[in-house]
Amino acid sequence: MVLPNRNSASKASASDLAAKIDPGAVMRIKNLQLRAKTVVEGFFNGLHRSPLHGSSVEFSEYRPYTIGDDLRGLDWKRYARSDRYYIKKFEDETSRNGYLVVDQSQSMGFGSLEYTKIDYARTLAATFAYFLTLQRDCVGLMTFDEAIADYIPARRRVGHLRQLLVALSRPVSGTGTDINVPLQQIANLVHRRGLVLLISDLLSPVESLRTNLAYLRSRGHEVALLRTLDPSELDFHLDAPSMVQDIETGQEFYLDPETAKSDYQERFSEHQAQLQNVCDSLGVDLYTISTREPLQDSLFHLLDSRQRQTRGTARSGMIARAATGLKGAPS
């Protein structure tokens, strides 16, 4: 897994590093794998052009030699290039399991741009799947609405990425969202500790989310939430009194613009604060993403999350004790 150095990365934001690609342009690419490849290549191009190149990125398939290491593991070609001793880490030391849990409910079908939240979320998931496959990690997928739609165990083999992308491409369905079922199922089904990445608008009660996130963390999993929202959800605006329709239930109701915005902003801020408090208390990273943002930024979120959670686990060991039981091209 390629990880940014914390000290150097703090001096430059993701927006400074990534070669920005307009998400609208990415969404116009019909092939989902080609979209993912475009984003990942833009991400790496940004790293290569950044001032952090060569000093802020370390490849975890190597580690510095220390006294007592088996000399048979030394990489002499790397020594010839760098004049430093490095030990090769074998695949079973670096391979991780990553699970993408993607909300495909009707609310994700909303969008005020030329594309919807689910278009953006699918592209995010495809990008992470492509990237983790490049890192030789095993990738799995679970999609859901009010029930689980698809479950594909984490694997790394020929054709696996294509299988994930087919599942991601299915149309939104269902009449509601139950975020608890997929989180419970992932915790019950996945016994090997890994990364669980939830991509959703998180329009669900906070307390039930707390319980299931806590269960995942108790099983030793790293967890990160990518709250994917349309710009109009982040900055609500209504020009005139209107009848609006709930996208999941179909219920219509009247909204007055003078009171609707203030009420919405108050409730949205309260819900966001509750989500943040839950995540902070459990050691879960929460990133709120506008569908207008470049998709490469989310890769930086992912890498930053993995690095901090891995270091935190190594320092305390608490999550591991509580548990009960990312270079070849993908096909």
TrEMBL record:
Membrane-spanning segments: none
Pfam families linked to this entry: DUF58
Signal sequence bounds: none
SUPFAM superfamilies in UniProt: vWA-like
Family annotation (InterPro entries): DUF58, vWFA_dom_sf
Stretches assigned to the DUF58 domain: 61-273
Domain of life per record: Bacteria
PANTHER family: BLL2464 PROTEIN, DUF58 DOMAIN-CONTAINING PROTEIN
Name the record gives this protein: DUF58 domain-containing protein
